[in-house]
Amino acid sequence: MEKVGVSLLCSVFFLSSRSVNNFLMTGPKAYLIYSSSVAAGAQSGIEECKYQFAWDRWNCPERALQLSSHGGLRSANRETAFVHAISSAGVMYTLTRNCSLGDFDNCGCDDSRNGQLGGQGWLWGGCSDNVGFGEAISKQFVDALETGQDARAAMNLHNNEAGRKAVKGTMKRTCKCHGVSGSCTTQTCWLQLPEFREVGAHLKEKYHAALKVDLLQGAGNSAAGRGAIADTFRSISTRELVHLEDSPDYCLENKTLGLLGTEGRECLRRGRALGRWERRSCRRLCGDCGLAVEERRAETVSSCNCKFHWCCAVRCEQCRRRVTKYFCSRAERPRGGAVHTPGRKP
Ligand SMILES: *[C@@H]1O[C@H](CO)[C@@H](O)[C@H](O)[C@H]1NC(C)=O
Ligand SMILES: *[C@@H]1O[C@H](CO)[C@@H](O)[C@H](O)[C@H]1NC(C)=O
């Protein structure tokens, strides 16, 4: 897990070890104190990406996360947009939370509005999470990795910003009542970070609604071209994700792009409380990609019915449980187990 995280991180920030270290060496010494938060934040972004896309054809694979601007081939599709936004959000989130936890000497609660009227019947008070701090520092780290001036660089910067906006936009107001015996005649309120999962879910919605801008043709590296790029991005809200290219066909394996295709992927059918998106996963991953759904039965053995015996032992029984799992497979070559041709119904 640790190793995967580190290598992912490397891909995302081409390469945290190289680039962040370069930055640390050339940038102000002060930034050294944030580097472990930045690394942890980027990793939590990637873990959230894997969670949000677990039942999608594209499931946030390591190899496709290569966002390096060194390598000539840099993708600029909807998924690239999500990766930038969630990584940037993760870094901002972790910096902000660590600040509230007192990890940094130079930052603490945001009490800049305390005492001011916030709305009907409530005043700002208490300890608001200092997103301003997290925003500024994460911007320094993450945006600094984007050195180009082309449309791809502008897209990445835009999506980094959308990630930071998502953290800000999902913050929760928490209030405390005041007044005689809790009568709540006045309240003081502060802003708290949500669970990071909520930021991920918010960005997943933005991913589905991502806007495509047509800038890859024409707009060259001339001053006029750069002006056109800047104008285009200025006209789009920084709350929205933006992409330049269409996504490749994630059903298919494509070694050049580092894509595995959906053959062999697990999908979900029944037996658990599934959401609509999960319930349709077999159709999305297998059926719609021309693959069959293969059922594999397995038995798991685990400890159960444990009893505590005086004194002092715990004895358990071994329980066997049958589990059925579903995988996408090629219809012609069933690899054991029952093969179902996919129906049209979800
Ligand atoms: C900040 O948080 C992350 C994980 O949430 C942790 O790994 C890191 O060490 C923390 N503290 C500092 C000072 O970076
Ligand atoms: C892989 O993707 C590239 C870029 O989209 C495309 O040109 C190529 O034909 C694809 N290869 C296969 C085997 O599908």
TrEMBL record:
Sorted alphabetically, the keyword list is: Developmental protein, Disulfide bond, Extracellular matrix, Glycoprotein, Lipoprotein, Secreted, Wnt signaling pathway
Localization recorded for this chain is: Secreted, Extracellular space, Extracellular matrix
**Keyword Secreted applies:** yes
* Keyword Secreted in record: yes
Q: Name one Pfam family in it.
A: wnt
Role this protein plays: Ligand for members of the frizzled family of seven transmembrane receptors.
Q: Which family does it belong to?
A: Belongs to the Wnt family.
What name does this protein carry? Protein Wnt
What high-level taxonomic lineage is stated for the organism?
Eukaryota, Metazoa, Chordata, Craniata, Vertebrata
**Gene from which this protein is expressed:** WNT8B
